[in-house]
Design goal:
This protein is of the alpha+beta class. The chain is built from two helices and eight strands, in the order H-E-E-E-E-E-E-E-E-H. Helix content is 29%, strand content 22%.
């Protein structure tokens, strides 16, 4: 009885070891579900022009701006799109698209970008990423400045003021100057006529008294 029981115990141990070996093989073959997608471990920020690359701050309202990517894989290549969002007077109406490549430290940034005022959404994606990529919503606000009014031109004609030179007579008023210039001549003529008239009058008065 005792001799017959020993082989059974050995068989039970062998079966248990075989089961553990199979289970371990299955566990080793299961990939890790928590692993991140290749390269999708960095961040991209929107900086106004003048903010240094690598600055940790994110600026949701800008005028001229650029995109700053950090902590990605070395030499990784990216594409991006920026499209207007929303409706009404604050909706963005512009569109931008481009690409960038990370350096050996996994950093990349674009040149200066400009858009009309409004609300926009950035989509930043690596070439080997899965999914929609990294997205950010921001506002472009350059203040809506209006152009300076055009100055009224000043007159350069003699006289110093607009509307014609000063000091001369108005149109149609030249008779005053002409009368002033002819005053002495008219006076002399009047004296002459008075003298002639007086002589004629004296001759006419003398005739009834026999004067020739």
């Amino acid at each position: 009885m005792l001799i017959a029981a020993r082989p059974r115990r050995a068989s039970g141990r062998t079966a248990a070891l075989a089961a553990l070996t199979v289970a371990g093989t299955v566990l080793i073959g299961v990939p890790g579900t928590a692993a991140a997608a290749p390269g999708d471990n960095g961040d991209v920020k929107i900086h106004k022009t003048g903010t240094p690359p690598g600055d940790p701050s994110n600026e949701p309202k800008v005028c001229d701006f650029y995109l700053d990517a950090v902590n990605f894989d070395a030499l990784e290549h990216f594409t991006y799109t920026i499209d207007g969002q929303g409706n009404g007077p604050n909706a963005g109406t512009g569109h931008l698209a481009g690409s960038a490549t990370a350096d050996a430290q996994g950093a990349a940034h674009t040149g200066t970008l400009t858009l009309s005022d409004g609300l926009y959404k950035l989509v930043w994606k690596g070439d080997n990423w899965q999914g929609a990529g990294k997205q950010k919503v921001f506002t472009v606000d350059c203040g809506g400045s209006s152009p300076s009014p055009t100055p009224t031109p000043t007159s350069t004609r003699p006289g110093g003021g607009p509307g014609g030179p000063n000091g001369g007579p108005p149109a149609g008023g030249g008779g005053l100057a002409r009368d002033a210039a002819m005053g002495p001549v008219a006076g002399a003529a009047a004296v002459g006529l008075a003298a002639v008239g007086g002589a004629v009058w004296l001759r006419l008065r003398r005739r009834p008294h026999g004067a020739s």
